Amino acid sequence: MATKILCIDDDQDVINVCKKVLTLEGYDFDHASDGEAGYRKAKDMKPDLIILDVMMGNDTEGFHAAYKFRQDDELKYTPILMMTSVNQKLDFNFNKKRDREFLPVDEFLEKPVNLDMLVVTVKKLLALKKEQVNIDGSK
Amino acid sequence: MNNLTEKIKALIVDDEKGMCLGTQRILGDFSFPIEELDTSVNFDVEYVCSGADFYKVIENKKYDLVVMDYKLPDANGLELLEYLNGKGADTGVLMITAYATFETAVKATKLGAYDFIAKPFSPDELKYSVMNLVKSILLSRNVRKFQEEKKRIRFEFVSVLSHELKSPLNALEGYIDMISRYHGKMDDSELKTYLERAKTRTVSMRKLVMDLLDLTRFESGARNRECVDIAFNELVSESLNNIREEINSRGIAVEAVFDAEYNIVADRTEIEMIVNNLISNSVKYNKQGGRVMIKTENKDGDLLCAVSDTGIGMTEQEQTRLFKDFSRIKNKDTENILGSGLGLSTINKIVSLYDGEITVNSKYGVGSTFTVRLKNIIKEVPNGN
Fold first, then answer.
1. Which among B162, B163, B181 has CB closest to A115?
2. How far is B187 from chain A (nearest CA, A)?
């Protein structure tokens, strides 16, 4: 059974690119366009990796989604790759180093996403063991 | 009408206790309005009788006004003034002296004392000087507040704008990157789909830039407004003709109802912006084969124009954000509709130029009605009403 990746982003074009690239790389790909739909889809498909955008309906929807996944027993240990546009909104003071300390996600990638980096990072996160997943922002 | 009261925290510094008490009483009973700020001012007055006590109280409390004797036994007014400046206090200083010389006046003014009065002074002299000083403090505070607010709004606008401009660039870069790496593994139809999406994002980015120019033109007031006679019904027909192709291709039935021939006096470009935007939205956000209804009426001399559609509609939560800059309703229904999120916010600004309002009534999945009310612009209604 192929490895499953769920991408949650409200930008159709990000989805298009991720879908094509990750499908060509041999993964099963599915997507959702907001945190709520993403959560429902994740419960259903039980992905091996979640790719999550920060700013969807509001500036922090992605963060809330990440916390929700970590509180769910079934999805708790699914690695999360967070896609951000750092300083996308200047007043949104997002700091990768600092936020990694309390955000329960495993890696950050900045948009526009370099596709080599995407493929490498996806591989790296899929190789994480259960105990290596950053479930409480401590890793 | 004074809606607000501003309590000025005043401190008197004088080694003669009688002077302190007298000044405290005069200011304690004093109150005056500042019309520009819609505020009335009164005072909360404390006093100290030495430089040493001044340093003590100033450490713990911020005063709006200091009425200061120039010559104290243990300090002079210039020292205290310098100390206040060093603390960066936003405090107005009125210097009182029996020995006013030109030189000390210049020095003290350079250090930021607002005014001088010489002993002995009458209660009216004191009140007059204090009133001018307080007005100046409060007005300059108000100007600063506005400037800061302006800066904040501008910053927010630029932040959102940069986000809106980066997002199509990210999409384009994504497609270019993907096609250049994987084109050997894609068939022609896939390639075509991606190129079409890239083109769509380019077009929408251009629209954003154009809408942005419109918005800033209206906001800056740089445009010369010219009020002319406009046949409103005709203008609506022209607007419909401009997008006739889109109306036909989407099979939308349009009905325009005028209970009279409406002649208005207004700026043509502004009215065109309003009408074009509303009509274009009603088509753009409609369903295939939907309906658009445009209804115009005279409401006590105001022009009321309502544009209804049977389109995708909005939830109540979505409606609250509608008139903000760059606000776009993002969901499955709108992902293929081009929009900058600036159209309605621009209309909203134009409508306010006519002392009017724009309202929305919408139901998700059923449709929306946008109603614009423009005050007192109807020139004549030959058919009655």
1. B181
2. 12
* Distance to chain A for B175, nearest Cα, Å: 6
Residues B139 and B262 placed together within one structural domain of the fold: no
CB distance from A24 to chain B under 8 Å? yes
Give the pLDDT of residue B179.
Answer: 95
Closest CA of chain B from A103, distance in Å: 23
Q: Tell which of B118, B147, B176 closes a domain.
A: B147
Domain that holds residue B283: 226-380
The closest CB to that of B175, out of A13, A24, A56, belongs to A13
Whether the CB-CB separation of B83 and B52 falls below 8 Å is answered with no
- Four-way CATH pick for A4-132: 3.60.15.10, 3.40.50.2300, 3.30.930.10, 3.40.630.30: 3.40.50.2300
B174 to A13: CB separation less than 8 angstroms, yes or no: yes
* A68, two tokens: 């929700």
Segment B211-240, tens digit of pLDDT: 888 888 877 777 788 899 999 999 999 899
Helices (H), chain B: 17-28, 51-60, 77-86, 102-110, 123-182, 188-220, 232-242, 244-249, 268-284, 316-321, 343-353
- B175 and A57 within 8 Å at the Cβ level: the answer is no
pTM of the predicted model as reported, rounded to 2 decimal places: 0.64
ipTM above 0.95? no
Could you tell me if A111 and B162 are in contact, meaning their C-beta atoms sit under 8 angstroms apart?
Answer: no
